[in-house]
Amino acid sequence: MGNEIVLTVKDVIKNFGTNRVLDGISFDVKKGEVVVIIGPSGTGKSTLLRCINQLTPPDEGRVWLGEREITDKHTNINHIRQDIGFVFQHFALFNHLTALGNVEVGLYKVKKMSKEEARKKAIDELERVGLKDHMEKYPAELSGGQQQRVGIARALAMDPQIMLFDEPTSALDPELTGEVLTVMKDLAEAGMTMVVVSHEIGFARSVGHRIIFMEEGHIVEQGDPEMILKSAKKDRTREFLHKITELYGG
User: Fold this and answer.
1) Which of 22, 24, 122, 222 could form a disulfide with 212 if both were Cys (CB 3.0 to 4.6 A apart)?
2) In what order do the strands lie in the sheet with 162-166?
């Protein structure tokens, strides 16, 4: 992990009606760093990821990818999104396309690759996530874990500078969770910069460089995973971790 800052989030505020979901969130992510965001449901974690790539524009605050300001109204957001991989909770695949079709479509439609180049790149990425033998199957023919791995391959195919994961295993049966986490661990070990919203404490402990604990739109505490998990400073952090460990293990 280097000192180069890949992502900067500064004073981000987001309201839904009278409900303030994010209340002045600020943090940086370094190149090669894996940041795991934890916290109760409804505390703004997923909204934060969506604010980063402008799927949900923040009401106030600024976000940069490297030196490019994502929140600048003059920024070509569709261009900058190519550099931000996003893996959704519920897969978000095109049901009428095969696994291969889901991965290659963005390459020739958005990156303007030739069909031949796009296909070769897509096959390489599906092989990377262990799905080369399933590339001609449609989403309905794949397990949830396989569908999520197609989603990861699709994001990786764009060669992003950073990957955002929005609770990527929460819609999966426990036995399918491991195959997705294994792919994510491999990415982390290869130096991919990642921000992961997850309740997978074991993943945070073994792969994360930093844990951020959020509640009610605020960052309550953040730090090295071992410090947060073993000796969190805030009572609320310790209480949450005790409950989540009881529920999910870790």
Assistant:
1) 222
2) 84-87, 162-166, 194-197, 34-38, 210-215, 218-223
